[in-house]
Model the fold of this input.
Amino acid sequence: MHMCLKQHLRHVEKDVLIPKIMREKARERCSEQVQDFTKCCKDSGVLMVVKCRKENSALKDCLTSYYKDPAFYEECKMEYLKEREEFRRTGIPTKKRLQKLPTSM
Done:
């Protein structure tokens, strides 16, 4: 029973917090498309809506493929649960904990 309680997700976790992790991770994995689209927008200015359709749709396709992938959702959910567990144990949010560590990237 304890395990069940640990895995239980509140509405806000399912609908807000996990999708936020999914968006962040998907953007990392689609970084090439993000860069192409960003560059196109910078180069095109006002005309970006017309000129960057190809880049925009490549980016959307890439992101959507992750959003629709059940395995990717599970991966993000597990990451969230791990962070939540750690927070409950230490009282320190992951973001703050990560900021304290020297970054290797």
Q: What stands out?
A: The longest helix spans residues 70-90. Confidence is low (pLDDT under 50) at residues 1-5, 101-105. The chain has seven helices and no strands. Helices lie at 2-7, 11-29, 31-44, 48-51, 53-67, 70-90, 94-100.
